[in-house]
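haha ok so turns out i had the wrong file open the whole time. this is the CORRECT one, sorry everyone. sequence first:
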Amino acid sequence: MFERPQSGEKAVLVHVGLHGAPRPEELQEFTELASSAGAQPLALISGQRKVPDPKLYVGSGKAEEIHQQVLALGAELVIFDNTLSPSQERNLEKVFECRVLDRTGLILDIFAQRARSHEGKLQVELAQLRHLSTRLVRGWTHLERQKGGIGLRGPGETQLETDRRLLNQRIDQIGKRLARVDSQREQGRRSRRRNEVPTVSLVGYTNAGKSTLFNRVTEAGVYARDQLFATLDPTLRRVELEDGAPLILADTVGFVSRLPHELVAAFKSTLQETVEADLLLHVVDASSAQRAEQIAEVEDVLAQIGADEVPRIEVYNKIDLLPGTEPRVDRDADGRPQRVWLSAAAGQGVELLLGALADWFRSDIINTRVSLGPADGRLRALLFEQGAIVSENHASDGGWELEVELRRQDFERLRKRESVLAAQWRDQPPAFDQTG
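then structure:
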């Protein structure tokens, strides 16, 4: 009979490269992840394989090498920087005689420690339960015992079946609670749209300096530390730009390479602030040698949550760590800001970012005239819902002549929202007399 060993903090770290030798930066991030979870790394063992071993992920020789390190160092935990199947995790625990954790479990543990709000705790618990549900497979033998006692002897419900049923019930309960929270958030988003206040969402790789920048711009006092996943819960603050125009700035969870799918799914309601944003500020650690890879990882997650088409400005942060780099704004051929170089910690270039935001939203307004027929009442209602109609005159055919003013983002959102828009606004330039 095999019972799962208890966990501890003294850990041996294992990284297995499937596409060549691991880069030093990968090993450094893995070590920082383990430390962020509260582990005490005693050793880091790396190796290479073309394909994972179906039984142990690593080969039997490497597994024995890790076991000897566990015994020699008195480790209580082995953490893999890879995703293990339930059977691999179980088999490795038998070999090592200590608890085994994979990358997904490690990140889930960090998120569980960092969540502060009621919503954040629910989202983390949902992700943990979904992950645990894949682990309820014949590895923990006490879960397979039949219930005993009067009336329960014989082919009764096994403990494994009971646990799976209770687990699914809890997942359903949390899902319903999060649906209510998401409904409340959607009400807030509708209110902001009615008040024509644009939303700008900060996104970026974890530890790129999003919360530091958020605090610098809003003076919100959000927790910010030089560690991975310092903050999880989204924070929204109102900001007045230099021309007096307001916007809502949202700080969101940071991303990391190979972010577990359980977390992307569980945090979808939180990340909806990113999907619904009018503009993304993609914060990049300009001093990182892996900034290109980190940008690609963020873009991948944005695509997963459906935010890849939201317009964005790249914010290259931490230029104080790049000698000779001065704060500046890079613009495209039309003069729109594309990239801002600054240091949130030192306060250098923050005013350039605020100016770039003011320029962006000033140039983001479309002023057009639209002719609608009598059958286009739904489209007219949608435009009124957006608060986009400046003036309206009745046409001789029973339709309407409208002057419309709205942001480009809202315009594109309307075009995609209803098929009638695709028919009415088939080709944007011919259909509109664009005056702004």
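DSSP finds 15 helices and 14 strands in the chain.
again sry for the mixup
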